[in-house]
Amino acid sequence: MRSFVAILFTFCLVFSGLFAFASSNSALVELDKMADEALQLTKFSRLEEAKSILERFSVQFSKEGIKEGKFTMDELRVLTASHHEALRAVTNINMSLDERVRIVTSFRLATDAVASTHQPMWVEMEASVMKDFQGVKNAALEGDKDAYNQNLNTFLSTYTVIQPSLKIDLTAEKLQKLDSKITYLDRYRADFSEQEWTAHLESLEQDLQKLFSDPGEDEADPSLWWVISMTGSTIILTLSYVSWRKYRGQKQQSKRKRLK
Predict the structure, then answer these.
(1) Averaged pLDDT, 118-128
(2) 91 vs 258: CA distance, rounded Å
(3) Would you indicate the residue range of the signal peptide (predicted)?
(4) Alpha carbon distance 23, 222 (integer Å)
(5) How far apart are CA 66 and CA 76, in angstroms?
(6) Residue 231 pLDDT more than 50?
(7) 157: part of which helix (H) or strand (E)?
(8) Which of 19, 85, 164, 189 has a CB 3.0–4.6 Å from the CB of 110, allowing a cystine?
(9) Model's pTM, two decimal places?
(10) Which one, of 21, 18, 14, 20, lies nearest residue 237 by Cα?
(11) In the chain, domain spans
């Protein structure tokens, strides 16, 4: 009887873990939907409505992220900063529509990076990022400084759209390595020569290609690993208990037969 109660208690722990994970995932889905809605409204210049959605997001995010501790410190920091920029984009009367959309898109991608359990949306930016980088590379190889500066500005603008998402999905070491190479391009843009920049540009191009082809391991939520671990342990314990009871019963039955 005690063994049965112990097994029942363990199953209760597992299912409570599953319920907690489902609840957490539901909250992330809701935040993700709000971020997407804010982006769609921004694209159609419905800025007051987009602002309202972003304010709702802030309240929900504060509740889920701070009070209930469902996000890591990095996720909290990145989403808070990205949300602040998105709110600024829809309230700044002097900002162009393209700039508004770019900033709110960055926020949308960052929210998805937190919520996604599979391939994140920022990976879909590969074509735009690589196209803009190719413009930088071509201008550098041709020695055209004016075209180089113009293309570099375009590339940097596109890269900043996915940068918050990268802060969430990449390790600090990988992101620092990538950012340092891009910063080098920007900082020394006036002093380049074809020979000097060829190796650097090719190295950065390889890093960008690897970034999109292998965006990194999609780490599951810690609570999910806890549930998986608990479930596996429960199954093992249950099977072991059943096998032991069966073995013990067979042994006692054999003993009784020998005594007859």
Answers:
(1) 94
(2) 89
(3) 1-22
(4) 14
(5) 8
(6) no
(7) helix 145-169
(8) 164
(9) 0.74
(10) 14
(11) 12-117, 119-216
